[in-house]
Predict the 3D structure of the following.
Amino acid sequence: MNTANTSAGHKVPFGHKVAFGLGMLANQMFPAALGIFMVVLVQNLGFPPWMWGVLFFLPRVFDSVTDPIMGFISDNTRSTWGRRKQYVFIGAIVMGISFVAMWQLHRESGLNYNFVYFLCWSIVFYAGLTLFSIPYVAMGYEMSDDFHERTSIMAVAQWIGQWAWVIAPWFWVVMYDPKWFENAD
């Protein structure tokens, strides 16, 4: 990629930028929702603050190690599907399944079991997030050779992605609305 290229070059249609940006909404929504739902562990399942801290910290340490590795793998992949698409596809599936699985907690299972269970599924979730987000963001930068056009693509994608942080707090309304969950405590 030539970052010095400022010619008009190839213009990516606005609709393509928006379509790409919808992936950024998913990329941001899962972590935003995870932050909102983590409070359930403390309030409803009785996790002490140190457990909550470990659950926030360890998966992100794992993520900080796997992100550059995934970048290297994605950059050096040669396949009929391209360098990135298969990872985005697999990562989306892993993220979706693990996000649902990590919340299958029951008080009867006990605090320690729920802690280990949630920690393991959080790590799987962050592995899926790495598989999805690292190649996905790189795809955005490869949509154009023009520096200004790449900036425009990522600006639209980030603008759409930031809506996740506006939407996620509304999950509180759903979680504690008796019309949705009669026995929610």
